[in-house]
Write a structure and sequence with these properties.
seven-stranded mixed sheet; binds zinc ion; alpha/beta
């Protein structure tokens, strides 16, 4: 299985438009972060988790020419607003499967009504095949994917475990029962927004506590704000099996 980090930044991305914060002005490529998304590939299949405003550029940058589906963690704009840009895949491949909780599907249908209409549909609009996911395992091609439920402030969000790879973002609370599902996983990805606490995201300290509970072989932090600090400086402070993810990072499991 190959994982490619397409984006590792928080909702505004890094740099933030117009910001003069030193991290936003950094010339280190690892400090440039598009909105969070990850590509998961195995046995010739390719799935994307989340499809935010940078989706088009992320597909170009990773030379991704085919997708088998898009999984959504939740409906916030930084995770969904690129859905229209599945068009090139739709034109080449046909209807594109999407996987989301029913609340997220409802939100997508409202915001991208022209994608979901069946009558008088504009010929250039893409069509999706909706797959409603609940908090129970589901099959993608030849593997079983396990949803991991957590809370993003009051909103329920799903993380996903693909074999020995668990990807969780926008978490603030995760129950012990859900943590049990990913204990001792090989690779864990978890959000760590910044140093200071935040109402809907783990800060660095909370992310490290979470990693201590899960006890993965290796953990990577994502959904990073400029307020976490410079990539290279922060990484030096982390435990030896914890790393900051960065855009373009590839991991093979
Ligand atoms: Zn987010």
């Amino acid at each position: 299985m190959k994982i490619t980090f397409l984006g590792t930044g928080t909702s505004q991305g890094i740099p933030i438009i117009g910001s003069t914060h030193p991290v936003c002005l950094s010339t280190n490529k690892k400090d440039k972060r598009l909105r969070v998304s990850v590509l998961v590939e195995w046995d010739g299949y390719t799935y994307v988790v989340d499809c935010g405003p940078d989706f088009r550029y992320q597909m170009l940058r990773s030379n991704c020419t085919k997708i088998d589906g898009v999984l959504f963690t939740h409906e916030h704009s930084d995770h969904t607003s690129g859905l229209d840009d599945i068009r090139p895949f739709y034109f080449r491949q046909g209807d594109i499967p999407i996987y989301a909780h029913k609340r997220v599907l409802k939100s997508l249908k409202k915001r991208f009504d022209y994608i979901f209409v069946t009558k008088n549909k504009y010929p250039g609009a893409p069509t999706v095949i909706t797959n409603r996911i609940k908090n129970r395992p589901f099959i993608l091609k030849n593997i079983e994917v396990m949803p991991i439920k957590g809370k993003h402030d009051a909103l329920s969000v799903f993380g996903f475990k693909f074999n020995d790879f668990a990807y969780l973002t926008d978490m603030k609370t995760v129950s012990d029962k859900e943590i049990e599902k990913i204990k001792h996983v090989k690779i864990l990805v978890i959000n760590a927004l910044r140093i200071d606490p935040h109402h809907s995201h783990f800060n660095l300290e909370e992310a490290l506590e979470f990693i201590n509970k899960v006890k993965p072989e290796k953990a990577y932090l994502t959904h990073i704000s400029h307020m976490l600090g410079f990539h290279d400086a922060v990484e030096k402070t982390l435990p030896k099996n914890v790393f900051l993810a960065y855009d373009g990072l590839e991991i093979t499991i």
